[in-house]
Amino acid sequence: MGCQLSAVGGIQDLKSEIDQPLTPVDVVYELTRAYGPRSWFPRYDSMSDLIFTGLSQNPADVNSARAYESLMAHFEDWESMRQAEPERIAQSIQAGGLARVKAPRIKSILGAIYGELGGYDLSFLAELPLDEAKRWLLRLPGVGPKTAACVLCFALGRPALPVDTHVYRVARRLGLITPRTTPEEAHADLEQRLPPELVYSFHMNLIDHGRQVCHARRPRCEACVLSTRCPSSLAAAQASPAPDAQVC
Ligand code: SF4
User: Fold this and answer.
1) Which protein residues touch ligand 1 with a CB less than 6 Å away?
2) What value does the mean pLDDT take over residues 101-120?
């Protein structure tokens, strides 16, 4: 059973008790003061980032990084990977888990891209209007809003917001999205309330905050720079006798 703050209306009701409810822009500024400014740099080229993101459950997943490196070492180029048997791809990504699920997906993505472009250069996505670039990626097999946003943000520096488990959890607790907002909906919902130049910082800051302070099980509200304006912290302070159980 979910915690009380998961109930629809809980956080929204408490937001009205806070003088100045936080906006996504406020959160960027407050967390930038805590964690320092962010400088974007390309993680991989866009084709490589698409495959890397498909292999990783989260960007800090060491096993996924090892699987990606092994995959790239096993194949000379994208074309040889596309033509390989799924079994051979699966062997090369075993370190990352779910290899038999991911291998055919990689082949399908490569096949779809080759079928459409006759090659594997996705750099044109940097020039398309953002919505069009997203739609192009979302047509690929197995590509959802998070993967599309990761490629556009991390490889191309576009203002697309990836919403992973940390971003989603922290944004919900802060009341930036409603308890009804799904992770898929949260991408566009939050992204459109941020100026383009703050999208990357918002993502990186919420990831760090989720890892360091706003933990999934026991958020460290007492150490949080946002606690005086966080409806979840307020709920925990009002609740008794088990505040930890109220913040989820
Ligand atoms: S006050 Fe607590 S629940 Fe709110 S963002 Fe900070 S750590 Fe998370």
Assistant:
1) 170, 173-174, 213-214, 219-221, 224, 226-227, 230, 232-233, 247
2) 96
